[in-house]
Inverse folding.
């Protein structure tokens, strides 16, 4: 009888010990994941921009605008943006139709299409770093990538 009680007691300790050590691993993993997510968020802008640049360079043939998600921008609206002067120097914005694809606290993406609706250029302005990237959808690819101001 004492042997059975001893075996049951030992197995209960083993099960409880395994459960408690498993919770500690989950908490450590959770903390590590949170730290990884924080560092990932800091690098997300750069990585996202590089991914977009690569995708744009690889899909230069697909220059037609298939979606109407962004809003069209007038020249007056564009003139208020800090990157406008550089855009005027690099591309002919007066003959192109600008459509703001993304404008949030981190970055602004504007697509420039010709009269037939074909995308010609894409500008990506990273606001926190004041970095402007301009991509030409033809064979030129990225034509500008500098910090402005």
């Amino acid at each position: 009888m004492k042997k059975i009680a001893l075996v049951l007691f030992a197995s209960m300790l083993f099960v409880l010990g395994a459960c408690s050590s498993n919770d500690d691993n989950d908490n450590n993993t959770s903390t590590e994941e949170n730290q990884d997510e924080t560092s990932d968020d800091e690098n997300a802008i750069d990585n996202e921009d590089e991914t977009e640049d690569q995708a744009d360079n690889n899909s230069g043939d697909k220059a037609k605008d298939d979606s109407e998600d962004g809003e069209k921008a007038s020249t007056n609206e564009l003139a208020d943006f800090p990157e406008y002067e550089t855009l005027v120097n690099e591309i002919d914005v007066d003959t192109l139709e600008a459509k703001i694809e993304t404008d949030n606290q981190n970055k602004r993406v504007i697509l420039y299409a010709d009269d037939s609706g074909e995308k010609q250029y894409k500008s990506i302005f990273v606001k926190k770093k004041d970095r402007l990237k301009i991509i030409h959808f033809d064979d030129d690819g990225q034509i500008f990538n500098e910090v402005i101001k």
